[in-house]
Structure formats: C-alpha cells, structure tokens
Amino acid sequence: MTAAIRVALIASARYPVRQPFAGGLEAFVYQFAHALTAAGHSVTMFAAPGSAVDLPWDVVPVHTLEMSEASRQDPSVPDWVVHETHAYLSVMLNLADRLRDSFDIVHNHSLHYLPLAMARTLTVPMLTTLHTPPLKWLEQAVALPGGVASAFTAVSAFTARQWEPVNGPVPVIANGIDLDEWRPGPGGDYAVWSGRLVPEKGLPDAIAAARMAGFRLRIAGPMGDPAYFEQAVRPHLGDGVTYEGHLRRDELNELVGGAAVALVTPRWEEPYGLVTAEALASGTPVAAFARGGIPETIDAASGRLAPPGDIEALSRALRVAAHLPRGPVRARAESHCSQSVMVARYLEHFADLIGVEPERVSA
Q: Which residues are in the Glycosyltransferase subfamily 4-like N-terminal domain (predicted)?
C-alpha cells in the first residue's frame, strides 16, 4: 500500500498558475502538481488569484490587499512589492493555522523571502526548491542567524554552486517535463524561439543569429514588458521573423516540433532553461548560449553551444544543429529531462523529511 503524502505547494503570488503560462516557474509548478496528483498524492496549491487547473486538486488563492487611498499615495515602495509581501504573509499565517491536520510537508517554489523567514512557525517540514541564483531578498532570508527551517534543492548543478557560499552544499533535482505531453515533431525549415519576451532572455540576439544563418524565425511567448516589446522586438519583425503570440502548451509543442532548430539566447545565467528541455522533448535540436545550467542539458547529439553573446558563433551553431538527427535529440530528453524521474526524486526527499519509508512512496 503506497503512502499518500499531503503536500502544500507555495507558488507564485504575482502570476497565475494557468495556461498559457506566464513563465517557466508557473509551467513547472502546474506540471509538478499534476504529476503528484497522478501518483496518488494530495496537493493544495497557494497561488495567485486567477490560477486555473484541470485536475481535482485544491487551489487556495492568496489574499489580495485592498490598499487604502492614503497608502497608495506612498511613493517609497512599489505597489506590487506590498501586494506580494501581503500575499505571502497571509499564506504563511494560513499554513501555521491549518498545518497540523492538513499537510505532511510544505514545498516552497516562491521567490519571496517571507516563506523562508517564517518557516520556523510551521509544524511540518518545508522543502524549498531554488529556481534562481541568490537574489538579494531571497539570500538575506537564507542567511538569517541560526539558519532557516527549510531543506533545499536546486534545479541544476550550476544553481547549486551559486548557492553553496550562502547555505552550503545543495542537492540537485533537475527539472523535468511530461514526455507524454511533449511529443516529437517532424521538424521543418524554420528556427524557433520561445520564452518570456523580456531583456534577460536575449530575443534580439536570436533574431540576429537567425538572419545571419539564413533561417526564418518564429517567436512565441508572453510579453513580460509591453514597452520592451515595442522598443526591442517589434522593429525587427517582418523579413522572415514572425511573432506567433502567447501559446498554450499543445500549440507550443506543435510550433517547436515543426522547427529545424530552437534558439536559446539568455543574457543572464539561466538557472535551468525549461525551453531547452521542451525543445529536446519535441525532437528539435538546440543552438544556445552556454550560460548557467543549459550546458548540463545539451550534449553533442542534441545541440550546439556558443560562447555567451557571440552572435556569429551562435549562427554557426544554428546551422550545424539544424542538421542533427531528431531521434537522438528526443532520446536526450528521455534520459535527462524526464518528469517521472524528477517526481520520484522529490518523493524520496519528501519521505526522508517526514520520516516515511522511501519504498512506500509512489513514484
């Protein structure tokens, strides 16, 4: 008889967890909750209002602050900072009230400091997945005197190394995706770029590399900043470059699977790079800047890497990667990006933290 674990997932208080996803973190939490439920476990998610799911697990919208007219006039702190802090404060107080009878473990995926700072108020273990480098607010919570009442994992070896000076060695559980949902496609004659349309994702570099290599480029993703889109993206559209919009997962799978090659062009040290895994699962080889955790996912059979910021080298990588056989690309996803392997490792970690025999935990 498999032991069912009651998991409280702390997700984003700023962006709803629903399709089409605002970013990789929201996509990850959505898919992870589905996988836990499918494995027979109970999930309650604390997430931004408007979160929508299609399985019988609970979503508890975080509390929304109705600010007074006087406080809205205060210029010292942006409104979104106050709303997010209030939301996580309400989550942690809610958990402290209902934990003993409702949950076995709290799994924290937020990027806010409050869940970590208030972990000592909980009566069950907390596990925090580190999805980012040591951001200032997050690091200061981890560095509290006496330590934080949370265990940690990191999404890549690179991210674990970044956090090691702050809180010592961190176990790695690499992100995974549902390989039954992401199916291999036939390929095609264009390049594809997907992700949030924000400066750190480096879309202009992808456009320049695709044009240099003589490839059409199709773009998909949410506009994280409309002003950035108007200034840095729209002027480059046309002449073989098209924006396909913000797509649902099945639509994105079709677009990526129909491409000859996927471009991944971060201008920051990408902690993992979910779009890389999605491309490999679609059978589409990747040409990417060698930043952050991306080199841990791509091998010589599934893509090519270029030095960060080197557009000419990226265009050469694109031309080579576009001709790689698609079978080994999908095989790389199956061996290194499997959601089932990721979930099994998390369940082992949960079992260790709550004192359940690992062999009794469903994977």
A: 23-180
Q: How far apart are the two ends of the chain, measured CA to CA in Å?
A: 13
Beta bridge partners of 180: none
Sequence-separated (6 or more) residues with CB below 8 Å from residue 125: 105, 106, 150, 151, 353, 354
Question: How is 153-201 classified by DSSP, letter by letter?
Answer: EESSHHHHHHHHHHHS---B----B-TTTS------SEEEEES--SGGG
For 137, other C-beta atoms within 10 Å of its C-beta total 15
Look at 12-26, 247-261, 325-339 and tell me which has the smallest mean pLDDT. Answer: 12-26
C-alpha to C-alpha distances, 104 to 8, 43, 139, 191, nearest whole angstrom = 8, 10, 26, 45
pLDDT digits (tens, 9 = 90+) for 156-205: 999 999 999 998 999 999 999 999 999 999 999 999 999 999 999 999 99
Report the alpha-carbon distance of residue 117 to residue 97 in Å, rounded: 17
pLDDT given for residue 16 in this prediction: 83
CATH T-level assignment (fold) for domain 6-176+338-360: Rossmann fold (3.40.50)
* 190-336 CATH, one of 3.40.1160.10, 3.30.70.20, 3.40.50.2000, 3.30.450.20: 3.40.50.2000
The residue type of 99 is: L
Lowest mean pLDDT among 41-45, 314-318, 325-329: 41-45
Q: Whole-prediction pTM value?
A: 0.88
